[in-house]
Design a protein that fits this description.
The protein is mainly alpha-helical. It has 13 helices and 5 strands. It binds adenosine-5'-diphosphate and tryptophan. Adenosine-5'-diphosphate binds next to α1.
Length: 332
Amino acid sequence: MKEIVVSGIRPTGKLHLGNYFGAFKHFLTLQEQYDSYFFIADYHSLTTHPNPADLKGSVQRVLAEYIALGLDPEKCTIYLQSDLPETAELYLFLNMNAYLGELERVTSFKDKVRSQPDNVNAGLLTYPVLMAADILIHRGVKVPVGKDQEQHLEMARTFGNRFNRLYHTEVFPEPQAFSVSKELVKIPGLTGGGKMSKSAGEADTIYLNDEADVLHKKIMRAVSDAGPTEAGQPKSQPVQNLFDLMQLVCSPEKIAFFDTEHAEGRIRYGDLKKQLATDMETFIAPLRDKINYQLENTSQLQEIAAFGAEKARKSARKTMNLVREAIGFKTN
Ligand code: ADP
Ligand code: TRP
């Protein structure tokens, strides 16, 4: 039997180049090799009380992007978290053995208490319990997530083990964080800083459906430096960032050309940016077209979500029968 992979993304905006190379590309590999469940974490997004139209729009967008970028509903299971009410039932059961003290100590919760003191709701406190339910509902063992999610995963192990011990069962395996490649990639942004992130603003971020003119403008305005004054000067951070972005989309010959130009102290950043903009457009154009195409095909998206929900529910029902039986409830 193939190992079970589970991962979710909160519907909080458009996918950018960092999301693609840092996370999404791994999903594409995983769907070939594992029994994978990729869901859109729309229950989780309720902690910030989105209005219904916005929520619907964001969920549609993520789903369209999932499909456009190559997740295949035949190879993996793609579904909306809210189409799997079994998750909510498991969340309720797990909450009975999740203790206030341990939930209050979670870093992401403490951050939220600081950043949004007016909305410290119980959903926020029990966010890790819901995330544990997401994973345990399929008895997942591998969870492709970034470093920031490690503590949540540790809690998923705690809640699963606690349930097993309490009810003398082995229904839940221990889920582990999982990365496809050894080195974790970090895609830099356009404003000279560290990693590309939507919170760093429009100018920093290349979205996978940026229009050609927008893309061109953003890249031509990217932060560089005053240029080397003599041969052999090392690259500044913003210039290194531009070279790192070239690595993603430009041919080795072109990168080597600009490398030499820099090393010899005669580089023209305008030329480099033009090259980067051209090659980035070549990379983005088909993705943009596919995303826009999917966004217009809402009926197909609905079918895909319904198909995924059915597959996910099959797996969830199996788990919940074992869980209900262990607790002493009748099975369905
Ligand atoms: P953002 O930082 O823009 O808010 P998220 O936190 O929603 O992005 O990230 C979703 C996924 O994309 C995570 O798995 C994260 O590790 C990955 N990711 C985001 N930005 C980058 C980046 N610049 N480089 C590599 N991976 C990234
Ligand atoms: N908490 C994750 C994030 O913010 C999203 C998420 C929710 C998730 N449930 C999950 C990820 C289950 C993996 C498995 O990125």
